[in-house]
Amino acid sequence: MKDHLNYVYYIHEKYKDAIEVLISGEKDARSRVEKAYYTFWHIQLNEYPEHIRKQVESITKLLTRLQGREGYILNDNINKMKNKTASKAAMMIYNVYLELEKYIKELETKK
């Protein structure tokens, strides 16, 4: 249980970093979302708490829904994306952050 909680803390910290980029990053929403995504993209879907996985998967699908060059699919999608779509992705990232916070509080009360 302790290792699980520590890993959830790690994931939460990555999302906290992403939120800081979304709030204080330079350039437009698309650029900030791309940079924010790179703070947590390496975390495998099965490493998330089960009830959050669908939300994370939705973020990835939104950011990679269009075809792109191999190895550049995120970048190619960001370049074609409207700021409105990027704002939606930013809100989705924020919602995962909030869900992680809620989950951590639940785990801490069970200790």
List strands and helices in order, with pairings.
Elements: H1 2-24, H2 29-37, H3 53-63, H4 73-80, H5 83-110
Helix pairs in contact: 1-2, 1-5, 2-4, 2-5, 3-5
Report the uncertain regions: none
Distance between the termini: 9 Å
Strand content: under 5%
Strand-pairing-aware structural class:
mainly alpha
Give the strand tally. Answer: 0
N to C succession of SSEs: HHHHH
Task: Sketch the major β-sheet.
Answer: none
Helix content: over 70%
Describe this structure in words.
The longest helix is centred in the last third of the chain and has 28 residues, at 83-110. The radius of gyration is 14 Å and the shape is elongated. The N and C termini lie close together (9 Å). It is built from 5 helices and no strands. It has helices at 2-24, 29-37, 53-63, 73-80, 83-110. With 111 residues, the chain is mainly alpha-helical. Helix 1 (2-24) runs antiparallel to helix 2 and helix 1 packs antiparallel against helix 5 (83-110).
Describe the structure using short key phrases.
111 residues, mainly alpha, 5 helices
Offer a concise description of the structure:
The chain is built from five helices and no strands. It is an all-alpha fold and 111 residues long. Helix 2 runs antiparallel to helix 4.
